[in-house]
Amino acid sequence: MTHVVSCGAGTSVLKTWDLGFEDVVDPAAVGAYVTEAVGRYSEYKANTQEVLAASRVAATARRPPKTGADPSRDRGRKPVLESHEVQGQLQIRGVETTDLELFFDHQRDREATRLAAFPARERNAFMAHWAKIRADPTVFTQTIVVDGQVAGNVVSWEESGQHEVGYWIGRDFWGRGVGTKALALFLDQMKVRPLHAYVAPHNIGSIRVLEKSGFRGVAAQDVPPSTADDDGVEQFVFVLES
Known about the structure:
The chain is an alpha+beta fold. Helices cover 36% and strands 26% of the residues. The chain folds into 2 domains: 3-62, no CATH class; 90-240, Aminopeptidase (3-Layer(aba) Sandwich), CATH 3.40.630. The strands form 3 sheets. Strands 4-5-6-7 form a 4-stranded antiparallel β-sheet, sandwiched between helices. Strands 8, 9, 10 and 11 form a 4-stranded antiparallel β-sheet that branches.
């Protein structure tokens, strides 16, 4: 319905073309009518925009992601970063003979040995080393298993009257929180405290694992915060008090 308002001397004529007649009305009445009409239109427009917005949200929620696309991506927005938590089931158990071949492969990785600041052993030396470890009743060893796959190991031993802990994670399992979770499970079983750990200064990932597990860098007044092992490799000392 189209309304045209024209103003004359003292009166206003409201022409309602689709009804085909003219009504002479009071100017105040015309003003009130126009105000009410504008208000209703604004309300209608706002409601319509709200309904359309809700429809777009619902349509977006129903729309499946494109094959191969990252569903966390939106137009012009950065993807939502996923937390690096362990995906799948992680457990620790006693070391089995069949685990040793996988341990051997893990410690041959060049990047792993660089971060650990410890050279890889040849097969015979490696197997002899583990035979000695498994034969010592004072050494506590556990294999890390993720979804049925051997992911590494955690070992605790006593040396010079000090209890120490060490771990080695296969490279395929890095960046997934495996070390942190496995060490937490290990510490639930290994109750001896204080417990010490040595780590190369450049091995940031291992330092974070220790810190998340409650270890702290040893204060200078207790023991120097870094020391050198028998091979002259500088290491940081961390300790878990309780």
